[in-house]
């Protein structure tokens, strides 16, 4: 039976419309015929993308502590400037507050978060457990990624989980969403609904390999692709041209990412992130004109350039500094008469 505390949690979170689904899930048999595709409505995030709205999202990092008041207050202020807040998952292998807990607290504040699910510290049992927890809380937006090695984080002697690949995890999550199928084939009814995202790196070093990896993620069920951050337009433009040539922009929503920076020192810190490189031309430009206003000019050029690339449906801010730029960035990306997307291809 459902406990009073469980019921209170659902009511507090505003799930009056989900109560019947919840009780159905409690009483339904977990083994049997394949369950039908869930008829639950889209998440707000998915609705915005499908409607052709250019989405602005930002990433927040849970505290390395259990005190959350300052984190929630800060997140609420950020959310006032953007469309979607994404909660990262022990970023850079730093042990932090559980992202599921952080996401639920954000949800109680009226926000709809995107939750990162990092495979670095999850085997398939842990992943399924978290997915069922997300479903019970009504958290539908997820992005699946491999993550940085434990060796660079807060506990370098920890062992990386190597149980399941990103592509296989996306495929399993898609089967859970469309068929109610757990990873071992067992069926649960009704199926949970997840809006599934994946990560891709826009690189021209080996386009064929990059496109093969991207295609595999989309074939496996990723509905949106969040790109690793870029500091130059040329590479991103060339990569997206190949995406369009293969028709992949019609099968998934693409969100570019940036790290805003207000000085050369801040820019150099990003070079410490694995897989991220700073163009020498950018360093040279800032070495001659490194003022805050020049940095804003560079960021503005990058943002508007990204906005103009065909197939890019949103911008994800990997860093929230400088905080006072958020309203300006958001204003840059607001355009009237958004172009609708063919939902039959993407969903």
UniProtKB/TrEMBL annotation:
Reactions accelerated catalytically = (6S)-5-methyl-5,6,7,8-tetrahydrofolate + NAD(+) = (6R)-5,10-methylene-5,6,7,8-tetrahydrofolate + NADH + H(+)
SUPFAM superfamilies per the UniProt record, alphabetical = FAD-linked oxidoreductase (SSF51730)
Instruction: Provide this UniProt record's keywords sorted from A to Z.
Output: FAD, Flavoprotein, Oxidoreductase
Q: Does the keyword Transmembrane helix apply?
A: no
Q: Which InterPro entries match?
A: FAD-linked_oxidoreductase-like, Mehydrof_redctse-like
Statement: the UniProt record of this protein carries the keyword Flavoprotein: yes
Q: Which GO terms describe its biological process?
A: methionine biosynthetic process; tetrahydrofolate interconversion
Q: Which GO terms describe its molecular function?
A: FAD binding; methylenetetrahydrofolate reductase (NADH) activity
Which pathway does it operate in?
One-carbon metabolism; tetrahydrofolate interconversion
Needed cofactors: FAD
| One GO CC annotation | cytosol
Source domain of life is Bacteria
Pfam families found in the cross-reference section: MTHFR
Q: Which family does it belong to?
A: Belongs to the methylenetetrahydrofolate reductase family.
What name has this protein been given in UniProt? Methylenetetrahydrofolate reductase
């Amino acid at each position: 039976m459902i406990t009073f505390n469980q019921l209170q949690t659902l009511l507090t979170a505003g799930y009056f419309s989900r109560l019947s689904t919840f009780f159905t899930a409690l009483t339904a048999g977990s083994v049997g015929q394949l369950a039908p595709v869930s008829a639950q409505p889209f998440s707000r995030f998915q609705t915005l993308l499908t409607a052709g709205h250019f989405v602005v999202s930002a990433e927040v990092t849970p505290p390395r502590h259990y005190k959350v008041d300052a984190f929630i207050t800060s997140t609420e202020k950020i959310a006032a400037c953007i469309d979607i807040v994404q909660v990262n998952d022990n970023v850079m292998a730093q042990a932090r507050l559980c992202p599921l807990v952080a996401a639920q607290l954000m949800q109680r504040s009226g926000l709809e978060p995107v939750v990162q699910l990092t495979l670095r510290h999850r085997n398939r049992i842990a992943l399924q457990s978290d997915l069922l927890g997300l479903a019970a809380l009504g958290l539908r937006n997820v992005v699946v990624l491999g993550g940085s090695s434990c060796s660079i984080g807060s506990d370098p002697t920890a062992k990386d989980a190597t149980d399941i690949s990103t592509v296989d995890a996306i495929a399993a999550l898609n089967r859970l969403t469309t068929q109610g199928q757990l990873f071992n084939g067992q069926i649960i009814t009704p199926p949970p609904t997840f809006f599934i995202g994946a990560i891709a790196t826009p690189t021209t070093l080996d386009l064929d390999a990059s496109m093969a990896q991207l295609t595999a993620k989309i074939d496996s069920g990723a509905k949106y692709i969040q790109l690793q951050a870029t500091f130059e337009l040329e590479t991103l433009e060339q990569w997206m041209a190949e995406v369009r040539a293969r028709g992949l922009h019609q099968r998934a929503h693409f969100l570019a990412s940036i790290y805003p920076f207000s000085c050369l020192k801040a820019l150099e810190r990003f070079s410490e992130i694995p897989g991220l490189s700073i163009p020498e031309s950018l360093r040279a430009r800032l070495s001659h004109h490194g003022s805050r206003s020049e940095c804003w000019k560079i960021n503005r050029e990058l943002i508007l350039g990204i906005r103009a690339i065909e197939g890019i449906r949103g911008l994800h801010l990997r860093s929230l500094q400088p905080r006072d730029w958020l309203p300006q960035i958001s204003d840059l990306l607001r355009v009237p008469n958004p172009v609708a997307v063919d939902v039959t291809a993407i969903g």
